[in-house]
């Protein structure tokens, strides 16, 4: 039987993952184009290693218009003293770098949605090549993976850290212990609309402790949401023993997304007028929002009602909505 070796990744790192100390470099991904014939995408990466201990992989801007992760991780890479570290921290503050530079969810190069492109392909699009490098070269180095998200330009969330229900209950418990250590104002047992192609699923299938977040959104970040990201990252590093000391535990409310009833999708185009704000309690049958047709006056709005009891955990932004857009997410408070 003829077996062929897997195609190598075209990504060239300028950092040595086995070296001690702090290294600031790039993942250089060749990208030939009109304005740079032999050009590259240069994804910033920082490796901080010292002594012996576990490895944490910390990633931001998997979606390019989500800013808490990049804000916390550029700061961490610039400020962390390697003498405080036992183990290794791999920091990639802006993973889908072309999307991050463009301020868009997906890549301007290939429209690639990085968090729907895993496990990726070494011979695929630019976005698929980034995913493949993460899958085959970064995640295998890690004991714990933290991938930051928030709502981007079209959603806004209650600030939460999250893990998923997993077939391996020991792994699942370790993921939720890490979520508790992160200590965001809310902690979620998260249900994905479609988990195929996500970094989350890839890291979980590789047996890693995986934590994700949704820390806000609307295409920006606040002082409060950046502080949650910064504190949560340090807490997770303390939890794993990479940094000394105990996590700084803050009060959290545990939430659950028990079924697809938690999602409401718009079936109409129009102006969305919410009747509840993030964190507000909501009962099944309550109007979450009204969508007004905007082509003329005198037309009644369409009411979107909650399918379950809970709190409003996410909402559409900005003020206009289209059929098919996610209008809201309701979560139940479990604790
Ligand atoms: Zn995201």
Give the number of domains.
2
* CATH level 1 name of the largest domain: Alpha Beta
> Please, how many helices?
6
- Named CATH architecture of the largest domain: 3-Layer(aba) Sandwich
Shape: globular
The CATH superfamily of the largest domain is identified as Zn peptidases
What is the number of strand segments? 19
Can you walk me through this structure?
With 335 residues, this protein is of the alpha+beta class. It has 2 domains: 12-256, 3-Layer(aba) Sandwich (Aminopeptidase), CATH 3.40.630.10; 261-333, Beta Barrel (OB fold (Dihydrolipoamide Acetyltransferase, E2P)), CATH 2.40.50.100. It has helices at 68-79, 97-102, 126-138, 169-182, 199-205, 223-240; strands spanning 12-13, 21-30, 40-50, 55-59, 87-92, 144-147, 155-157, 160-163, 186-189, 209-214, 253-256, 263-265, 270-274, 281-282, 287-292, 302-305, 310-316, 320-321, 326-333. Helix 4 links the parallel strand 8 and strand 9. Zinc ion (ZN) binds next to loops.
Lay out the secondary structure:
Blueprint lengths: L11 E2 L7 E10 L9 E11 L4 E5 L8 H12 L7 E6 L4 H6 L23 H13 L5 E4 L7 E3 L2 E4 L5 H14 L3 E4 L9 H7 L3 E6 L8 H18 L12 E4 L6 E3 L4 E5 L6 E2 L4 E6 L9 E4 L4 E7 L3 E2 L4 E8 L2
Parallel strand pairs: 4-5, 4-6, 6-10, 8-9, 9-11
Antiparallel strand pairs: 1-2, 2-3, 3-5, 7-17, 8-10, 11-19, 12-19, 13-15, 13-18, 14-17, 15-16, 17-19
Helix pairs in contact: 1-6, 4-6
The site of zinc ion has 6 residues, from loops.
């Amino acid at each position: 039987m003829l077996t062929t070796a897997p195609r190598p990744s075209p990504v060239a790192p300028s950092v040595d993952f086995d070296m001690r100390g702090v290294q600031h470099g790039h993942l250089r991904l060749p990208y030939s184009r009109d304005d740079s014939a032999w050009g590259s995408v240069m994804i910033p990466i920082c490796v901080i290693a010292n002594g012996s201990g576990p490895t944490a992989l910390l990633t931001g801007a998997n979606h390019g218009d989500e800013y808490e992760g990049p804000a916390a991780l550029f700061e961490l890479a610039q400020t962390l003293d390697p003498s405080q570290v036992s183990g290794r921290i791999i920091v990639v503050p802006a993973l889908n770098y072309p999307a991050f530079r463009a301020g868009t969810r997906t890549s301007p190069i290939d429209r690639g949605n990085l968090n729907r492109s895993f496990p990726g392909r070494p011979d695929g699009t630019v976005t698929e090549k980034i995913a493949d490098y993460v899958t085959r070269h970064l995640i295998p180095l890690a004991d714990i993976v933290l991938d930051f998200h928030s709502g981007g330009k079209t959603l806004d969330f209650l600030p939460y850290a999250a893990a998923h229900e997993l077939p391996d209950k020991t792994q699942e418990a370790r993921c939720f212990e890490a979520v508790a250590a992160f200590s965001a104002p809310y902690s979620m047992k998260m249900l994905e609309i479609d988990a195929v192609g996500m970094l989350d699923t890839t890291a979980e299938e590789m047996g890693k402790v995986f934590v994700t977040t949704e820390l806000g959104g609307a295409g920006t970040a606040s002082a409060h949401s950046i502080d949650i990201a910064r504190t949560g990252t340090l807490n997770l590093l303390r939890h794993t023993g990479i940094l000394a000391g105990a996590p700084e535990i803050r009060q959290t409310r545990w939430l659950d997304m028990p079924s697809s009833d938690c999602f409401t999708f718009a079936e109409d185009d129009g102006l969305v007028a919410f009747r509840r704000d993030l964190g507000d309690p909501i009962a099944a049958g309550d109007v979450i929002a009204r969508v007004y047709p905007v082509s003329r006056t005198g037309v009644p709005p369409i009411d979107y009602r909650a399918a379950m009891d809970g709190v409003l955990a996410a909402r559409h932004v900005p003020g206009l909505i289209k059929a098919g857009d996610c209008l809201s997410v309701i979560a139940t408070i479990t604790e």
